[in-house]
Amino acid sequence: MRRPELAALLAGAAGVLCFAPFDLFWLAPLPWLALFALWRQAPDARRAALVGFLFGLGFFLAGVSWIYVSLSVFGGMPWWLAGPATLLFCTAMALYPTLAGWLFKRWQPAGFWRQALWFAVLIAAADWLRGWLFTGFPWLAIGYTQAPPSPLAGFAPLIGVYGLSLLLALSAALLLRWRVGLPVLALLLATGFGLRQLEWTQPVGEPVSVALLQGNIPQDMKFNPDNFVRTLLRYRDMIAAHPARLTILPETALPAFLDRLPPEYLDELSTLARQHGGDIVVGTLTGNPETGYYNSAVSLGSAPQQTYSKQHLVPFGEFIPAGFAWFMAQANIPMSAFSAGPSRPAALSVAGQLVAFNICYEDVFGEEIIRTLPQAGMLANLSNTAWFGRSLAQPQHLQIARMRSAETGRPSLRATNTGMTAIIDARGDVVSALAPFETAVLTGEVRAYQGSTPYIAWGNLGFLVLLLAGAGAAQIRRAASAAGSPAPGADARP
């Protein structure tokens, strides 16, 4: 392996340090600065594509290694199949920076400023494309490195996480010439800090007491029939010991179909909720062979029973893509054939509040979260990340949730099986959180918020306008500029 290719692989792996749990957000420009320098120095588009591929491979192998944990340790897949499957997935994700590298060199503009802008456009476009193509995998979009407390988080309510990817990549590229890059980065940080002081949304009504349950049920015991009654009793006792107006249990906390749960047990939970004039939202399974099976959140208590069913399903985890039944036969993943819930879900009216619920992986998709806003006053996520063990997945997921709050100006409630159970304020800061892999209840008081951020109103449209404007500015008169300038790649001075 040549020195540039090795540097790309190592720089990609180092990029993971900028995300949770390491949270070195201030380091984030450096790995992408290295990628920009390597692309500029590449002699042709093929070599730039190879550099992009190795950067992406190092990045995803280091960042989403928990996929192997879910397949092998908890999914029961033999290591000799889980290992190659994880490598194949990371290889597929690395194709996005591969394409970006090829495009950068194929249409590399003349002039440092245009090259930096073209680089930023391609990096941000790759993040955005990865977020929706083939159902989407937006995990580790580089904008997440700038979740609060980064000053750049001030831009989140305007242009969302992909807009932050654009700003970060531009800053990184400009730092190649530090006399130019440092003032630009300082200006962006100062502007972001100023935007963080704006109140896009306002609290409304009285605080509501909440209890978020972390049952800490081991994944290998979760669907074990011998552990079923013990699981139900654990959650019942936790609810009784921590009364609140709004109590939320994790995803599939009650590991059975709703109509197969003991009616007296559900009546007991409803009674506990009504004693405090509130509601309990439980993660469970709903549906039947005729209508399909759903991963759902169901309310019990003072309000009429309501159901939210997960609508953005995880490939292989919750549905089997066509032609891959043989692959899933090698794993022991229960309930991997769900149907998608309504694509335009309604917020649930619980504990006197309108709450926008989502389940597990769904809060990675910012434009889907805003479908029930601005009507809903808070966000709530039910997750079971026990599938990923003691890996990077849980802190990374909490960082994603913080970004959703920063984008929408809404507090977030996260009830998880093994972590990270947390209360996040409307600015995206963690108010309180439970230690992972402990059986505990997080209690607190949360106020709903009203109003709308630009991101709620426009979603990713603001980012896409910036992206197209940046692409146009980078490529305008490219051919004419190239006629009187050095060939692409020749201007590689730092």
UniProtKB/TrEMBL annotation:
**Matching Pfam families:** CN_hydrolase (PF00795), LNT_N (PF20154)
Subcellular location, record wording? Cell membrane
The pathway where this protein functions is:
Protein modification; lipoprotein biosynthesis (N-acyl transfer)
The UniProt record lists the EC number as 2.3.1.269
Q: What keywords does the record list, in alphabetical order? A: Acyltransferase, Cell membrane, Membrane, Transferase, Transmembrane, Transmembrane helix
Tell me where the transmembrane regions lie.
6-27, 48-69, 81-104, 116-140, 152-173, 455-474
Question: Residue ranges of the CN hydrolase domain?
Answer: 213-448
The membrane topology of this protein is: Multi-pass membrane protein
Entry GO MF terms? acyltransferase activity
Name the NCBIfam families on file: lnt (TIGR00546)
Family recorded in the similarity comment: Belongs to the CN hydrolase family. Apolipoprotein N-acyltransferase subfamily.
Q: What does this protein do?
A: Catalyzes the phospholipid dependent N-acylation of the N-terminal cysteine of apolipoprotein, the last step in lipoprotein maturation.
This chain's protein is named Apolipoprotein N-acyltransferase
Taxonomy, top ranks, is:
Bacteria, Pseudomonadati, Pseudomonadota, Betaproteobacteria, Rhodocyclales
